[in-house]
From TrEMBL:
InterPro entries: Matrin/U1-like-C_Znf_C2H2 (IPR003604), Znf622/Rei1/Reh1 (IPR040025), Znf_C2H2_sf (IPR036236), Znf_C2H2_type (IPR013087). One of its GO terms (cellular component) is preribosome, large subunit precursor. The keyword Lipid metabolism does not apply. One of its GO terms (molecular function) is nucleic acid binding. The keyword RNA-binding does not apply. This is C2H2-type domain-containing protein. Belongs to the REI1 family. Residues 6-28, 70-92 form the C2H2-type domain. Residues 128-145, 162-171 have a biased composition (Acidic residues). It comes from the Eukaryota. Residues 121-173 are annotated as: Disordered. Residues 150-161 have a biased composition (Polar residues).
Length: 202
């Protein structure tokens, strides 16, 4: 009888029950994902080492963080290595020498770091929610016509430009008047200036 093998994990299997157990294992699933990604599979020993490293990392994150502080310098550190380095620093040694009778052990304070609790946003009153859910219907045409009318009242279309604004070098002569009811883009003529402005805005 031919032996069963797993192509993803490169493992020989004894029988069908061993094959079923292997296919349900995390190692096999991990190697299948790697195979789909085009990356070669890993051995079972390497997989177990990675799993234990991830579990150890997760345990470190779930532990209560400690705050290491120096009472003499009023400084706090989140790990013991930084705190130990501070105790050996020149500035700490100078302060410790200035204050006689204090030892380094008396100045070191180690306590759990309190987790910050995020403030919850205040509860909104139901009245505010009801008011914010209501929408006022606005006709977009009316708003555009109002804006166009306001802009046209401040615009002097039919006034002749002064000679100072014109370049004397231009050989091309333009029309003396600009029709405000004619679209600049497609030359479509409108009945009113407002409708022309709405048309050009669209």
């Amino acid at each position: 009888m031919a032996r069963l093998t797993c192509n993803a994990c490169n493992k020989e299997l004894v029988d069908e029950s061993d094959q079923k157990l292997h296919y349900k294992s995390e190692w096999h699933r991990y190697n299948l994902k790697r195979k789909v990604a085009g990356v070669p599979g890993v051995t079972e020993a390497l997989f177990l080492a990675r799993q234990s490293a991830l579990a150890e990392e997760k345990n470190k994150l779930s532990e209560t963080p400690m705050l290491y502080s120096c009472g003499l310098c009023d400084k706090g550190y989140r790990n013991s290595k930084s705190h130990a380095q501070h105790l050996k620093s020149r500035s700490h040694i100078m302060r410790a020498s200035q204050q006689t009778g204090h030892s380094d052990e008396g100045n070191a304070i180690i306590k759990p770091l309190l987790c910050r609790v995020m403030n919850k946003p205040p509860q909104q009153r139901e009245q505010d929610n009801e008011e914010s859910d209501e929408w006022e219907e606005v006709d977009p045409e009316e708003d555009l016509v109002g804006e166009a009318t306001d802009s046209l009242t401040h615009l002097n279309v039919n006034e002749q430009a002064s000679n100072d604004d014109m370049d004397d070098d231009d050989d091309v002569k333009y029309g003396s008047e600009l029709d405000p009811s004619c679209c600049f883009i497609c030359d479509l003529e409108h009945d009113t200036v407002e409708s022309c402005m709405v048309h050009m805005h669209k």
